[in-house]
């Protein structure tokens, strides 16, 4: 059975009609019928019983269809990969990141990258972790920037830098703020992504009057004196003055990671971006810690 035969067989099985299958494949019904009969001759047995103008799948057809679904899915992935390779040559980077990083870290790094790579077009989109993984699996992204190394089939995770989480509150607090002393009635839940899971390792906040989907938005509500939350240091320093940012006890940290498909090495442009991102993190994280915590013995380093 050729790929064309497989395509027609699959279409007939899915559509349940030769006419609809021909429309799906943008060919004439006689052409589809001829190809289907040719497929049956090639494999040596009938795929469909013909009764009153209808095609009824045989038992063998149902058995083949299970395998055909897998092959057809792989073919669709191959076509999508070919289209993405056509539309995303070496002179283009498609980057995904978490919403909070898209409002703080990534714009700064991307501006540095584009100053040194004037011939490369960059496309950036923000998504939660599950969506980033889905887009990577579909070849829609060259790489993604997220928190916490992931053990996901087909995805390689490169840790870049460990950063501190900080407590945010418009009301002044003695520092470091002990996580068990945080007022539950004022808690703003920052979502169930990697940061939320990391917080849960130290304390479960079972209920909250205000729940948001991004760390950046949680910090913005703190600025409006709507409550308190825990956030990554980048979202915090982009949104709030130093007086609203406090270290936590016990210290909680997250890794910033670069994610990409494990079956595809990073392009030269992507490697250059990774290098600039790494250099920026190596430079800025110690400065942020020094600015926020000085030489205090409770400083997070």
CATH-defined superfamily of the largest domain: Periplasmic binding protein-like II
Structural class: alpha/beta
Low-confidence stretches: 297-301
Give me the strand/helix succession.
HHHEEHEHHEHEEEEHEHEHEEEH
Walk me through the structure.
This protein has 301 residues and is an alpha/beta fold. It has 3 domains: 3-87, Orthogonal Bundle (Arc Repressor Mutant, subunit A), CATH 1.10.10.10; 92-160 and 255-293, 3-Layer(aba) Sandwich (D-Maltodextrin-Binding Protein, domain 2); 163-254, D-Maltodextrin-Binding Protein, domain 2 (3-Layer(aba) Sandwich), CATH 3.40.190. 46% of the residues lie in helices and 21% in strands. Strands 3, 4, 5, 6, 10, 11 and 13 form a 7-stranded mixed sheet that branches. Helix 1 crosses helix 3 (29-43) and helix 2 crosses helix 3. It starts with a helix and ends in an 8-residue tail after the last helix. The relative contact order is 0.12. Residues 297-301 have low confidence and may be disordered.
Explain briefly what this protein structure is.
It contains 11 helices and 13 strands. It has 301 residues and is α/β, with parallel strands linked by helices.
């Amino acid at each position: 059975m050729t790929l064309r035969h497989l395509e027609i067989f699959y279409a007939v099985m899915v559509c349940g009609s030769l006419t609809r299958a021909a429309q799906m494949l943008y060919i004439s019904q006689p052409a589809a019928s001829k190809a289907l009969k040719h497929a049956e001759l090639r494999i040596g047995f009938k795929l469909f019983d013909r009764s009153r103008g209808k095609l009824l799948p045989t038992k063998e057809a149902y058995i083949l269809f299970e395998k055909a679904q897998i092959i057809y899915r792989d073919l669709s992935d191959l076509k999508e990969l070919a289209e993405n390779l056509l539309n995303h040559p070496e002179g283009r980077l498609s980057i995904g990141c978490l919403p909070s990083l898209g409002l703080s870290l990534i714009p700064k790094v991307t501006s540095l990258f584009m100053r040194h790579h004037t011939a490369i077009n960059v496309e950036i989109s923000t998504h939660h972790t599950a969506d980033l993984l889905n887009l990577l699996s579909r070849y829609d992204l060259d790489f993604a920037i997220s928190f916490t190394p992931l053990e996901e089939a087909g995805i390689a995770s490169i840790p870049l830098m460990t950063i501190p989480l900080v407590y945010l509150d418009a009301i002044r607090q003695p520092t470091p703020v002990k996580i068990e002393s945080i007022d539950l009635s004022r808690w703003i839940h920052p979502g169930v992504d990697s940061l939320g899971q990391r917080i849960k390792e130290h304390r479960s906040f079972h209920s909250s009057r205000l729940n948001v989907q991004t760390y950046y938005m949680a910090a913005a509500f703190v600025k409006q004196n709507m409550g308190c939350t825990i956030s990554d240091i980048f979202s915090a320093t982009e949104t709030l003055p130093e007086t609203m940012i406090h270290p936590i006890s016990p210290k909680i940290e997250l890794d910033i990671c670069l994610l990409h498909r494990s079956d595809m090495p990073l392009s030269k442009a992507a490697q250059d971006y990774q290098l600039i991102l790494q250099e920026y993190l190596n430079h800025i994280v110690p400065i942020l810690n020094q600015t926020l915590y000085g030489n205090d013995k409770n400083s997070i380093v």
